[in-house]
Amino acid sequence: MIGAAILLMTMLQATTAQAQIAPSSPPPEMAQAAPAVPTPIPSAESDAPIFPIGPIGSWEVDRDTVGACAVSRNYGTAERPETVTILSGAIAPKLAIYVVSNAAGAEPRSGTGAAILKPGASIDGYYSSFDVPARDQHFTVMYVDRTGFDGLAAARTLTIKADRTTTIAAVDMKAAIETTDDCRVKLYRSWGIDPARFDFGKAAPTPLGGGPLTWISSDDYPAAALRANIQGRVVMILTVGKDGVVNACHVVVSAGAALDAVSCEIMMKRGSFAPAKDAHGKPIASWAIMPVRWALP
User: Is the model's pTM score more than 0.85?
Assistant: First the structure.
């Protein structure tokens, strides 16, 4: 089940952290924002299980060489396990926590939620959830700030409050998250960039208008790439000025000359950010990591 979680995790990430552009599809829609009227969830204390479910097996590490690092572990029982996957993306100082359980015919939902450490803090976040009937699986993904987990060492349990409530024993979880941090640093270095530029404790520029999901349309697919049946993922390092304008674009993961060129061209022309700010709230120049997947039907 862990393998399935990692496999589908990549699919989920495509709708939240990157644009996926197909030549014959309609323009992509913004998929990361929470709904205008979030689905309410119970209060943090009202229906959390009294006893956490314990782990079975150990944490397994998965390194995605194009932009993410993850660890996964099964909880509960071998007959009905729940898989928890923690992903540290290269896009923003956030964690994505995936919980894979048995499907129950639930409709897709999204809204506000929380990750609750006991003892410790309650970290606000937002979630999306859906069933995968063919696999008899239900996916819930919670997005929370990475810095909220700095106190994880003292926590005995972690509760994910979303469409469902899952409480797990926080066994070895601090070390697991630190593993994803270390993986992320190695990933940056493999791209030839200084990890300090993207330190989790520093502010980052925020894409405006939905980011590449709305900056790029299917009409942008290069004709040369179409003729050659070329597709793939481009990961770029963008230099963002204190005015939020993209001043430079450097490709660190290539999908071929044509797709690389058009990706950077679009970022330079259409990319727009709310600039990063220093400790005093003043806009500063910074960097952003931006992936775009170009896909043929």
Answer: no
